[in-house]
Amino acid sequence: MTKMSKREYLIELKKKYWKSKKKQKGQLLNDFCDFTKYHRKYALSLLNKPLPKRWKRYKPRQRIYDQEVVDTLLVLWRAADEICAERFQPFVPKLLDKMIDCGEITVGDAVKEKLLKISLITVKRIVGKAKHRSVIRIGGTTRPGSLIKSQIAIRYQPWQETDPGWFELDTVAHCGETVAGQFIYTLDMIDIATGWNELSAIWGKGERNTLEQFKIIEKRLPFKILGIDPDNGGEFINWHMQKHCQKHNYNFTRSRPYHKNDNAHVEQKNWTAVRQLIGYERLDKPEQLEILNDLYANEWRLYLNFFQPTMKLKEKIKNVATGKSKKKYFEAKTPYQRLLEHPKVDQETKDMLISIYKQLNPVTLKAEIKRKIGLLKKTLK
Asked: What is the rounded distance in angstroms from the CA atom of residue 381 to the CA atom of residue 379?
């Protein structure tokens, strides 16, 4: 209803309302609230007070962000894989420049100016109706490691390391609804300081297969590994992994058994970097392993690390009275941005990363990722 129609309705209703009995007034009030969507207390005040001699003129507020701005923002949001507004809003200027350079969008100066100053609340409102994906839960597949775990230190304190190279590790099972037989796992590695994410597909959870894929990831990292912190699974807690870490002087620790929050960083990535992309289908064919490793080693790692901003916790304040905690975060940045800003990363590495970034197009990467996921889905039939 328009404001004018609401006023006309009010004028006619008041005449009937004042002459009615108590029960009738209640029904009239209910109808008035249903039609106008007014709060009950406000509707009561309108019906009981005399009509104003002069109605207030309502001037509609001018829209700052018109449809062109909204459409452009949604194009950027989809190019960023429809991430949450908190991660997306700080990344808008960087992504906008990249999309313009790649020729994916063309915007005028007025639209660009509005996009550069758009607030988090406005972004939340525009992208707030995003569809949520359904979630399927399966039981954990972690099996305890060998007796060697008594020789590996347990790490359960918050990470204090600020240099790149300290990784949390985990494996994600692509077993479908049953863990019987052989199937593919994803090895997931996340750098604590920068959020740099690397993945690789493994056939089963054998010790040698896991170490082989770990070595492949090791070679394509833009910085050296300083330490690893996996869970207590046998694919990590074994003599092969320990000897490799001793050979390269890696700090090798493990989380506490049955404490998933000890590896919270990689557990989060298991959802955002693996499950949201691959889903929960069973993958148990050699050609699926080949497609996954091709995707992980090329388009997906580039898209994740160069075009997916992540948030890092700044502080956690606990209210003693209520027992609730309030978290504050640093501005969302991509792992690529954090590496460029880090003083311990040498200039040669930074120049290499910049040259890679200049050749990338997020829309092209997304299209290729979608194509390869389509190939993977065809093998499920």
From this structure: 6
